[in-house]
């Protein structure tokens, strides 16, 4: 499975045909946004604290075919959900969620927690973000959106991929010139302000800045980023790295982060740890982040932290160190060392960040003992979705079979709910989001 296989010509032809029929226009007029899913080998749970993270995209993701609507109307259909969405780009969009001090998320117009149920929220969120930065929107879109077939995208940042897709389509239709770095901020507005999820900028940065075969590294405090090549040999026939594949093992657990208070609570605990450490050193910043804490200050005062806060801070500082070492290993093509650091990151996510549901932890434990695996960890926050692993290319199929068999022993009910052909997927590195 090569990175060049997505999107396939068949997929593009199918989407263009659907949109042309929706709009009554020729297929040649249909543009398609390609917005890939992402993985984060190292840098787990530290982007919201201004840490340094690594990421790359895979050759799976979101496709959004569209045509400018010639008026302000947005008309959307989905390959995964029923019904049709209609609204206008001059409708004023308001945040759907508010976040309480304890990290719980509530719908802004009710007093009860709200599940994600309306698939149009990311399209409306994209309009919200563009409006928020005073962009002039005069053109809507007629569009059809779908994700890679047979794939449970949870844990791969499908939400950011969808948000980016709608941003690129609306910007293209309205002839707005927006840089990838600006779109990172726009998608942050969708996630943080419109949906109330207090995550960082890792996901959208990976989707918008990645380059096939490279590891994208970003300092989330300064927003500086770079692409790191590797000395792993490439296959001249495919132009992709030959030494590794990316393995995705799915748990069958599905729950939106906006309905799980655990994520935002851990972000708040990181901030509480930063506040304590800064105050202990005489620094009284009003909006503290752990990136503002010098490592020496942490070492001096960490023993005084409450147990939960101590664990969150320990994860932050050790994960930052793992990213630095991992970038060096990647550049040298040292997959064994790179993999060891990924697995150590996964263990810290469980022990120090204390995220991960039982099925995800079981998947992680299976992966780290799987023949051919270099390293593994949760993909995403660890409450749902999947685990990622870097695997020896020559043993990828063997490894996938082993993981599938072992997980079905432990979680037969969850495993039975997954597509038999995609319980464990073998993927390639991908490229950045783009309009074709």
TrEMBL record:
UniProt keyword terms in alphabetical order: ATP-binding, Carbohydrate metabolism, Kinase, Magnesium, Metal-binding, Nucleotide-binding, Transferase
Gene3D superfamilies: 3.30.230.10, GHMP kinase, C-terminal domain (3.30.70.890)
Cellular-component GO terms for this entry: cytosol
A GO MF term: metal ion binding
Any one GO BP annotation for this protein: galactose metabolic process
Top-rank taxon: Eukaryota
Pfam families according to UniProt: GHMP_kinases_C (PF08544), GHMP_kinases_N (PF00288)
GHMP kinase C-terminal domain location: 330-407
Domain GHMP kinase N-terminal intervals: 125-209
SUPFAM superfamilies listed in its UniProt record: GHMP Kinase, C-terminal domain, Ribosomal protein S5 domain 2-like
Family matches, as PANTHER family: GALACTURONOKINASE, MEVALONATE KINASE/GALACTOKINASE
Listed name of the protein: Galacturonokinase
Annotated organism of origin: Tripterygium wilfordii (Thunder God vine)
Lineage, opening ranks: Eukaryota, Viridiplantae, Streptophyta, Embryophyta, Tracheophyta
